[in-house]
């Protein structure tokens, strides 16, 4: 059964909801418009989903009830063919043709019961969420004890070549910098947010994926097809002229082009996972509870300040 839950009122209240950065209605509209052609621009989502699934291969656990937020649907359905897989997206058009069950829902107000899921999988969606701490708390609450949250997000160095080119063109032509790109988190942010939400055994690492395009305009077309173009509420409201964008493309090529004339594009990917607490999980030792001294471990007395180590 298909559920429309994006307008669902949630009892969850977060102190950060006033800090609204992204226009979620605009984001949904863009995903609706690109849904029919999204597979033509899904290379990054496919790659990241595959790498997350590879990480799951190392975890010897049978996940029976799985919520997929943003992961590549066909890859997920193939991997979890024996589990109850629920696909969720902000855009109904992106999931309407998928195998049921599916849920149209906003990640900021998940319509999921507490302690109901074994695994929540989230690929390349979190960077558009206004209240990320609150969303992670809802994800945490939705997991059963010893349930797993695994995901990936765009990190801080993503599209740094395009950002730098836009900044340079703005200064040159407009006399100042205009907001064109979203703020993105780094590794330290991700780890702290997982711990703050209550996850145990948090793991965060980063990976850089670099691809090449024929021009900055080809890149911008790809980003539009992905539904990843600017959705900042306080974005630049003035008219971006063709001449200005042409200058952005020229700067990009002048500063970053490869020997073959193609431009490199960087995607900084943060991978993370965290568990819902359970008594069976490993716990750190309490301070002072060690059963072996440093002297015994080394097999000799450590050197004093006046002695050279042997």
Q: What does this entry look like structurally?
A:
It contains ten helices and eight strands. By secondary structure, the protein is of the alpha/beta class. Strands 1-4-3-2-5-6-8-7 form an eight-stranded mixed sheet, with helices on both faces. It starts with a strand and ends in a 12-residue tail after the last helix. Residues 1-17 have low confidence and may be disordered.
Which helices and strands appear, and what pairs or packs with what?
Elements: E1 2-4, H1 24-34, H2 43-57, E2 65-69, H3 73-79, E3 84-89, H4 92-95, E4 102-104, E5 117-123, H5 132-142, E6 143-154, H6 160-174, H7 187-197, E7 200-213, H8 216-226, H9 242-256, E8 263-275, H10 294-298
Parallel strand pairs: 1-4, 2-3, 2-5, 3-4, 5-6
Antiparallel strand pairs: 6-8, 7-8
Helix pairs in contact: 5-7, 6-9
Low-confidence stretches: 1-17
CATH classification, class level: Alpha Beta
What does the radius of gyration come to?
A: 23 Å
Q: Which sequence of strands runs across the widest sheet?
A: 1-4-3-2-5-6-8-7
Helical stretch tally: 10
Whole-number tally of structural domains: 1
The CATH superfamily is: Vaccinia Virus protein VP39
**CATH architecture, please?**
3-Layer(aba) Sandwich
Distance between the termini: 72 Å
Please provide the ordered H/E string of secondary-structure elements. Answer: EHHEHEHEEHEHHEHHEH
